[in-house]
Design goal:
This protein folds into 2 domains: 60 residues, Homeodomain-like (Arc Repressor Mutant, subunit A, Orthogonal Bundle), CATH 1.10.10; 144 residues, Tetracycline Repressor, domain 2 (Orthogonal Bundle), CATH 1.10.357. Helix content is 67%, strand content 0%. α8 runs antiparallel to α9. The longest helix has 24 residues. It is elongated and about 65 Å long.
Length: 220
Amino acid sequence: MPTQLNETAPRVRLPRRVRERQMIDVATAVFGRNGYHAASMDQIADEASISKPMLYAYFNSKEGLYSACMRCAGQALIETVHRSYSTERSVEQRLWDGFLAYFTFVGERTEAWRLICFDAFPAMPEFRDIELEVQESLHSEVAELARLASSETAADPMADPERRAAFASAMFGAAEAIAVGWLEGEDRSPEVPCRHLMNFFWLGGESLIAGREWSEARLR
């Protein structure tokens, strides 16, 4: 059920930030369900119970509104992953917590996630820069959490920034790709894709922590 801004009730003058966020929440739901091109400003205004001119007064255009929704969705996901990190948990537990936070977000806020997932809708070049900005921020957050966790281990496998960046990109790319199929499946338990990712990434990371590193010499 989309957020409603009921104008039939006595009008309450809301702070601009609050009203703006309410409009973004409704627009995110509409864009997430229908995609950018199929969604209309009339539909968004109707579901938000406001006038279309008010939407334009706040966001200037449909493109401006969609961009605002993308940025809010990206920030919400970053904050969700960040909050999952706890110094009281082991490295393995933190990795699990991060995956679980990600897939819980995908399951509970699917419309928001679709706005920042490369594979959710056909590519829209006009929003490519924002997509890349959001993706880079997410990768940086994952890389930083990997650095913090790794520095507590004897081998410190993520001491190399290049390895951290590659690890974060691979991890996030895999999670995003798996999430697309997971949403279409019958079992929507977030633990299911998390187990797959733990098999892929923790078992490899555990070897690095133990000082075992792959090289081409293994092929000789």
